[in-house]
């Protein structure tokens, strides 16, 4: 048998030019210097004097409307892809009265707010953009850009008549269960007190932007904004770039995650000087975007999108497929692993431990390629070294871009590597790192979104269920659901997102599975003339136990990762962390659990009264 412990390559893997043990030590060293005692508290919530960071720059000010006190059958909270798919599947199930409540000025969710230059999906558009066959639409490129994504959201809303009763520029402020009427009373920022028989909550996976908790951030006298509220009045241009007002400006961008990877090339092309402040480099692999081939479109058969989505989902979660339909950077590592795991020597199948070790080696090999790419593209060896990510590929969301790394060859672009410690503080004139002040005219925060603060904080409202029980009280020590959709004591309420579900890289696939499930349950309750539906306490307890048991499989992996929102800033396992309680068996298995449950037709675990 191959000596796996030394990193010697099995047949088909190619020669390794690295020492796995030394790489592991390097990974741990890089992780340890980034772990902070304050964890997620290193970020600050946007409120008070920073509330303007949340203002909507895409609507005209002064919008008003009369409050609503009516009743509808289903209220959907959130107008992003999750809410849109819930609305579409409920329409298909025959639900007529659907009202979507959305804080933005239109449908779109992520793609309403994130209009920064270069914004695009990092999952292939043919599987990421939902309901393509239903709308008879094929994306223009393999990786769609933000304007096309926003337009697709709006097209879905028109197709399924979700504009008819939508409430935009409206925040939900509370939900209370009326036991006598078997209805939810929903309060909003517009003074509404509307009633709904069912509520589906698709508040978004990362709905609230956050700022770094840096000393002096309020003292900076230049211009500043968050990437999720890009200020084109200041920069000029649009989501395609052409930031023509930055030619004489010194610009700082803090953060080098997925958003910055897409925005930095446009900033570098336009700014008088750009300073990129980095704590941890992203993994940036080849993107190779290209227009959609018309001949390929002609050959598409009914059911093509679901087949492609399933193919991708199975592959990136370690399953076998005869063909890799997507064939991109996401599936590359798993193509390698799949070939390795199929190897038999002397007729003996590799053990689970050996398979795990081979998977780890394939990950090392892939990341060595990513690091070699930085070294090959970036001319300054010191900058190239600083841009090399030393962690497992899926410790952070991997990035794919062909212009990000070359941007650091521009004479007007400076990478300020903070060696894992982050920015020291903000001054009146700029940004301080390691005792050096970088004077700038503008600071752009690419610091991501609030994670780990708990469901109620992220949603922005509490929910009062039976016997005046608040959701914030029930979930104070962690999520408690059945199948991730509903929680005991809160009837006719459905949760969509990452509440104890099967998380996959292609979020819209997960949301579509959830939307189908919600529509299935609602349709059944209506046909059965049921007033309420909620899980039994026994079913909920059983699911929580399953989640806790299965979650250990992923928590062990993320405990070794460099800090980030995936692992609660280096403290995984917390009840409110981004991946807390996710189904450890993976999304393929989880989706099959839901499918089998529906096919059995018993609605086991639910109490329908």
Write the layout of secondary structure elements.
Blueprint: H1 20-32, E1 43-45, E2 71-77, H2 81-92, E3 98-101, H3 110-113, H4 125-128, H5 132-135, H6 146-159, E4 172-178, E5 183-188, E6 193-201, E7 210-212, E8 223-226, H7 232-235, E9 250-254, H8 258-270, E10 273-278, E11 284-285, H9 294-298, H10 304-316, H11 329-341, E12 344-345, E13 348-349, H12 352-377, H13 381-386, E14 399-400, H14 404-407, E15 413-417, E16 425-426, E17 430-433, E18 436-439, E19 442-445, H15 455-459, E20 462-464, H16 471-474, E21 493-495, H17 507-527, E22 533-535, H18 537-559, H19 587-600, E23 606-608
Parallel strand pairs: 2-3, 2-6, 4-20, 6-21, 8-19, 9-10, 9-19, 10-15, 11-14
Antiparallel strand pairs: 1-7, 4-5, 5-6, 12-13, 16-17, 17-18, 22-23
Helix pairs in contact: 2-6, 2-17, 11-12, 17-19
Describe what this molecule looks like in 3D.
This protein is α/β, with parallel strands linked by helices. Among the domains are: 39-45 and 210-282 and 396-445, FAD/NAD(P)-binding domain; 71-208 and 452-532, FAD/NAD(P)-binding domain (3-Layer(bba) Sandwich). It contains 19 helices and 23 strands. Strands 2, 3, 4, 5, 6, 20 and 21 form a seven-stranded mixed sheet that branches. Helix 11 runs antiparallel to helix 12 (352-377). The longest helix has 26 residues, at 352-377. It is globular, with a radius of gyration of 24 Å. It starts with 19 loop residues before the first helix and ends with a strand. The model is unreliable at 1-15 (pLDDT under 50).
């Amino acid at each position: 048998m191959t000596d796996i412990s030394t990193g010697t390559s099995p047949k088909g893997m190619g020669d390794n030019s690295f020492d796995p043990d030394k790489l592991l030590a390097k990974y741990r060293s890089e992780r340890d210097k980034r772990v902070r005692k304050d964890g997620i508290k290193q970020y600050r919530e946007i409120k008070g004097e920073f509330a303007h960071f949340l203002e909507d720059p895409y609507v005209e000010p002064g919008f008003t409307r009369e409050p609503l006190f009516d009743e509808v059958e289903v209220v959907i909270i959130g107008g992003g892809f999750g809410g849109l798919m819930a609305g579409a599947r409920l329409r298909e199930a025959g639900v007529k009265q659907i009202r979507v409540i959305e804080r933005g000025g239109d449908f779109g969710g992520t793609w309403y707010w994130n209009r920064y230059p270069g914004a695009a999906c990092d999952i292939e558009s043919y599987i990421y953009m939902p309901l393509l066959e239903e709308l008879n639409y094929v994306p223009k490129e393999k990786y769609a850009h933000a304007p096309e994504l926003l337009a697709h959201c709006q097209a879905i809303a028109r197709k399924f008549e979700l504009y008819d009763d939508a409430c935009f520029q409206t925040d939900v402020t509370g939900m209370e269960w009326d036991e006598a009427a078997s209805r939810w009373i929903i309060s909003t920022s517009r003074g509404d007190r509307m009633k709904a028989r069912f509520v589906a909550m698709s508040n978004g996976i990362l709905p609230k932007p956050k700022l770094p908790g840096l000393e002096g951030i309020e003292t900076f006298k230049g211009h500043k904004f968050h990437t999720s509220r890009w200020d084109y009045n200041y920069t000029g241009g649009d989501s395609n770039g052409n930031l023509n007002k930055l030619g004489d400006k010194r610009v700082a961008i803090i953060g080098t995650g997925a958003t910055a990877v897409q925005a930095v090339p446009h900033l570098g092309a336009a700014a008088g000087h750009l300073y990129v402040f980095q704590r941890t480099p992203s993994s940036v692999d080849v993107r190779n975007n290209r227009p959609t081939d018309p001949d390929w479109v002609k050959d598409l058969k009914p059911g093509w999108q679901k087949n492609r989505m399933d193919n991708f989902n199975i592959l990136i979660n370690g399953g076998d497929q005869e063909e890799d339909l997507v064939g991109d950077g996401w599936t590359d590592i798993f193509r390698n692993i799949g070939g390795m795991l199929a190897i038999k020597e002397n007729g003996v199948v590799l053990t689970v431990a050996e398979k795990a070790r081979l998977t780890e080696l394939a990950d090392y090999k892939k990341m060595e390629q990513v690091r070699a790419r930085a070294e090959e593209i970036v001319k300054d060896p010191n900058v190239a070294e600083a841009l090399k990510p030393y962690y497992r590929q899926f410790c952070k969301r991997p990035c794919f871009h062909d212009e990000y790394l070359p941007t650091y060859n521009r004479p007007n672009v400076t990478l300020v590597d903070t060696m894992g410690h982050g920015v020291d503080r903000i001054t009146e004139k700029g940004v301080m790192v390691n005792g050096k002040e970088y004077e700038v005219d503008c600071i752009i925060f690419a610091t991501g979104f609030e994670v780990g603060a708990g469901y109620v904080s992220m949603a922005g409202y509490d929910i009062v269920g039976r016997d005046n029980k608040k959701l914030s009280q029930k979930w104070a020590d962690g999520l408690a659901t059945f199948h991730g959709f509903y929680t005991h004591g809160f009837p006719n309420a459905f949760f969509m997102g990452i509440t104890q579900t099967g998380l996959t890289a292609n979020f819209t696939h997960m949301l579509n599975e959830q939307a189908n499930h919600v529509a299935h349950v609602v349709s059944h309750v209506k046909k059965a003339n049921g007033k309420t539906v909620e899980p039994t306490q026994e079913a909920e307890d059983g699911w929580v136990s399953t989640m806790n048991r299965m979650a250990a499989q992923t928590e062990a992996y993320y405990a070794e990762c460099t800090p980030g929102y995936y692992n609660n800033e280096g403290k995984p396992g917390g009840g409110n962390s981004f991946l807390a309680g996710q189904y450890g068996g993976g999304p393929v298995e989880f989706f099959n659990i839901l499918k089998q449950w529906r096919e059995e037709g018993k609605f086991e675990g639910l109490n329908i009264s």
